[in-house]
């Protein structure tokens, strides 16, 4: 498994003290001078109402107070292609001066491996700022469905709503299907997770996969309390402590190669709600944004608001995200090939 936290504190200290020690060129604009009076836009890669959107809006309310110059923050939703529209906008179009950020799909570090025919980007060029927490994802059906357990999927086909095959919502059911033989049929084209849960409730689809367990607990707690959903399986690097009896996808790995491929596929869940800055930003502004993010994660007002929204805060730093992304980029070719096979739509 990937240990993203090892040396995280050391990396953070090196980043902060190393940058502070660099002299600023004569006449260069300070971070505070740049941000004073500015408005920073956070582009959210999903539709309003979901957890990505909730986290983007929560951050926008508090992070500016911890950034030199105290700029205003706003959120704009930019859904499309499982968040890839927003990823590519940040990479190619958005200003590279620190006034544009993104809350986008957690799979952005692995995405270029799976979509060679789509416009390319280099994940290592982004500047990760932080993530509010890690995640485990689940697959669920509505309580009226005859499919009550993962074992039922071996006997009866389920339609699963998805945005596309380029994020967890579409990729996780394919992993379950290709690894275990589960009878799953994807229904693509939903703009976001909110629309899929509505379709689930209405009976338009049988199931939703790739649904973050933290999001289920925060956005759909009443469904859990009223037993409106059946939790079929959990998918991630480790089991959720509060789902001890729900089947775990790793237990279905038949070989070491399978397990390595699953770890590659689920590694992005370690930084489940990424806030990114575009490539090419001035390094002092990147450092300031990372410091502001860390301070926000300790802000009493932010923490109280997060608790009210039932959003877990166990933050991952931008430096830790960089380390994780570097390990993902070094994955063995055989592991990547098996990961592609496990996510193939067929």
Structure notes:
The protein has 346 residues and is of the alpha/beta class. It folds into two domains: 8-134 and 271-342, Bordetella uptake gene, domain 1 (D-Maltodextrin-Binding Protein, domain 2, 3-Layer(aba) Sandwich), CATH 3.40.190; 137-266, Periplasmic binding protein-like II (D-Maltodextrin-Binding Protein, domain 2, 3-Layer(aba) Sandwich), CATH 3.40.190. The protein is 39% helix and 16% strand. It has helices at residues 8-21, 31-35, 51-62, 84-92, 111-114, 168-180, 193-202, 213-219, 221-225, 256-266, 283-296, 300-308, 318-329, 333-342; strands at 39-44, 72-77, 100-103, 127-131, 137-142, 158-161, 184-187, 207-212, 229-235, 274-277, 316-317. Strands 2-1-3-10-4-11 form a six-stranded mixed beta sheet, with helices on both faces. A five-stranded mixed beta sheet has the order 7-6-8-5-9. Helix 6 links the parallel strand 6 and strand 7 (184-187). The longest helix is centred in the N-terminal third of the chain and has 14 residues, at 8-21. The two termini are 29 Å apart.
């Amino acid at each position: 498994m990937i240990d993203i936290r090892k040396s995280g504190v050391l990396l953070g200290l090196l980043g902060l003290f190393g940058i502070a020690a660099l002299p600023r060129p004569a006449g260069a604009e300070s971070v505070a001078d740049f941000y004073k009076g500015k408005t920073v836009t956070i582009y959210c890669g999903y539709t309003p109402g979901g957890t990505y959107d909730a986290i983007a809006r929560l951050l926008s309310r508090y992070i500016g107070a911890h950034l030199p110059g105290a700029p205003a923050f706003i959120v704009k939703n930019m859904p499309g292609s499982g968040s890839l529209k927003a990823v590519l906008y940040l990479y190619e179009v958005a200003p590279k001066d620190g006034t544009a950020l993104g809350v986008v799909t957690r799979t952005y570090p692995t995405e270029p491996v799976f979509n060679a025919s789509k416009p390319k980007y280099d994940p290592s060029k982004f500047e990760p700022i932080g993530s509010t927490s890690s995640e485990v994802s689940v697959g669920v059906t509505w309580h009226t469905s005859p499919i009550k357990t993962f074992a039922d999927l071996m006997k009866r086909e389920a339609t699963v709503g998805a945005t596309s095959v380029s994020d967890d919502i579409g990729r996780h059911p394919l992993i379950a299907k290709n690894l275990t033989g589960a009878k799953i049929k994807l229904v693509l084209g939903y703009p976001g997770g909110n629309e899929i849960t509505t379709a689930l409730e209405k009976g338009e689809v049988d199931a939703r996969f790739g649904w973050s367990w933290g999001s289920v607990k925060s956005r759909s707690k009443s469904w859990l309390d009223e037993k409106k959903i059946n939790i079929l399986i959990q998918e991630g690097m480790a089991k959720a402590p509060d789902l001890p009896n729900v089947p775990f996808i790793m237990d279905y790995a038949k070989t070491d190669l399978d397990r390595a491929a699953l770890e590659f596929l689920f590694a992005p869940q370690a930084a489940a709600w990424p806030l990114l800055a575009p490539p090419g930003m001035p390094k002092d502004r990147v450092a300031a944004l990372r410091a502001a993010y860390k301070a926000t994660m300790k802000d009493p007002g932010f923490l109280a608001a997060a608790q009210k929204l039932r959003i877990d805060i166990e933050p991952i730093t931008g430096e830790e995200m960089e380390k994780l992304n570097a390990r993902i980029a070094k994955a063995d070719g055989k592991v990547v090939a098996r990961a592609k096979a496990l996510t193939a739509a067929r």
